[in-house]
Amino acid sequence: MVGTGLAVHKAKRLQALPPYLFVELDRARRKLQADGHDVIDLGVGDPDLPTPRPVIERLSQAAQDPANHRYSFTEGLAALREAIARWYARRFNVTLDPATEILPLLGSKEGIAHLPWAIVNPGDAVLVPDPCYPPYRSGTILAEGEVIPMPLRADMEFLPDLGDISQRAAQRAKLMFLNYPNNPTAAVASESFFQEAIELANSYAMLIAHDAAYSELAFDGYRPMSFLQVPGAKEIGIEFHSISKTFQMTGWRAGWVCGNATAIAALNQLKTHLDSGIFQPVQYAAIAALEMDDQPLREVCGIYQQRRDAVVVGLAQAGWIMPKPNATFYLWAPVPGGELSMAFARRVLEQAHVVITPGSGFGPNGEGFVRFSLTVPIERLQEAVARLTKVL
Ligand SMILES: *Cc1c(COP(=O)(O)O)cnc(C)c1O
Question: What is the pTM assigned to this prediction?
């Protein structure tokens, strides 16, 4: 039976992954667009603003040099690791050893999804926020770990109730994912919350992986802290970071993880078998981004803040009240009128031609909410508000 393709089967581990909930919504969106309708997409968290000019110029320049055309190394250029260390010192007053405490990644998603392979044995538990950025859950499942959800609820300001984790779950857990400023809830965390998490991790010998992808996108003077600023964090924790959201560089694929040297060595060991590093011109461009002054970033935050206000104030006038977040480019809004989030998102797409993400796609505890991504120009957001006002 050579050549029939009948012998090809998908591995069971793929079946264990959560289904992609948005297939149906995506299909409906594409159909509307193919029929010539003007759809406003507030679904994906992908910045519309351009990458800063000096970063693009550094890439173009580095791409001319044949020395940059060859394999790079998994551990990245020393110059990049040093630039990351300087940025952490300047921004957070956190000292990192560029040789052992920083590992560049092909985007932080790559490192996040691979981390459980380096830390978790089959059957070990992993504490995962619910709702959450999907790779925490899927990375755990692929490594045959058991996901133990930590509900994020509005009455707890979308922080997990650490006192609610059973002793048995804590004993079995090798890893806990946290993410503040948070996707999808746009919530932020205080130092006392991080302290509490560190105490728990110390009592039960688990690693904390904090995802700080949105640490630089904050408003009204608020400055998110790094998890690594908290005393004791580096002994049991690592922090993921990315140039994607900070510098409008989602397509470039560069991020890093920093903190605990043992965890970083484990992930580095795994990654030597998986990839051969980041294209060097992208590494030089990332250095240029990290060395820029803060002015462009302040402007970008100002733009997101105006967009946030346009939607929150505009929809409040239509009777839809939602919190005004301090950080991220998301709004996490309670579904008006008690519809399920998927039904509501489908209705909004069909009647207003606006894409929003149903909260249930981020985990069962996301039900009752929808996420708006503020990654379109303000005129489009105003148009979206006008259309939503009619269908509410
Ligand atoms: C966008 C995002 C990232 C960044 O992913 P990259 O792979 O670095 O582009 C990481 N974590 C969260 C929560 C995100 O929303």
Answer: 0.96
Cα–ligand 1 centroid distance for 213 (angstroms) = 6
Report residue 199 as tokens. Answer: 């105490």
CA distances from 241 to 47, 104, 216 (A): 16, 9, 10
* Crossing angle between the packed helical segments 108-119 and 135-142, to the nearest 10 degrees: 40
Query: Is 45 touching ligand 1 by the criterion CB < 6 Å?
Result: yes
Cis peptide before 131 (omega within 30 of 0): yes
Smallest Cα–Cα separation from 330: which of 222, 223, 181, 137?
Answer: 181
Centroid of ligand 1 to alpha carbon of 191 (angstroms): 22
What is the pLDDT averaged over residues 151-170?
97
Whether 53-290 and 12-50+295-391 are alike in CATH topology: the answer is: no
- Residue 179 is predicted with a pLDDT of 98
Q: Does domain 53-290 have CATH number 3.40.640.10?
A: yes
Q: Is the pLDDT of residue 278 over 70?
A: yes
If you measure from the C-alpha of residue 242 to the centroid of ligand 1, how many angstroms do you get, rounded to a whole number? 7
Mean model confidence pLDDT for the chain: 96
For residue 179, what are the contacts with CB-CB under 8 A and spacing of at least 6? Answer: 129, 132, 133, 136, 210, 211, 212, 213
DSSP labels, 112-146: HHHHHHHH--TT-EEEEEES--THHHHHHHHTT-E
Per-residue pLDDT tens digits for 67-88: 999 999 889 999 999 999 999 9
Structure tokens at 276: 């051969």
Domain ranges across the chain: 12-50+295-391, 53-290
Strand partners of residue 127? 148, 176
Beta bridge partners of 128: 149
Hey, what are 21's tokens?
A: 């909930």
Q: How many CB atoms lie within 10 A of CB 196?
A: 15
> Would you say domain 12-50+295-391 falls under CATH 3.90.1150.10?
yes
Q: Which residues pair with 129 in a beta bridge?
A: 150
Site to probe by mutation for ligand 1, drawn from 109, 216, 248 as the one with most ligand atoms within 8 Å of Cβ, is 109
- Give the pLDDT band (50/70/90) at residue 197: very high
Tokens of residue 359, six digits: 């909260």
Tokens, residue 388: 């939503």
How much is the pLDDT for 19?
76
Return the closest-CA partner of residue 307 out of 206, 198, 186: 186
CB-CB contact of 373 with 44 (8 Å): yes
Q: Does the Cβ of 328 fall within 6 Å of ligand 1? A: no
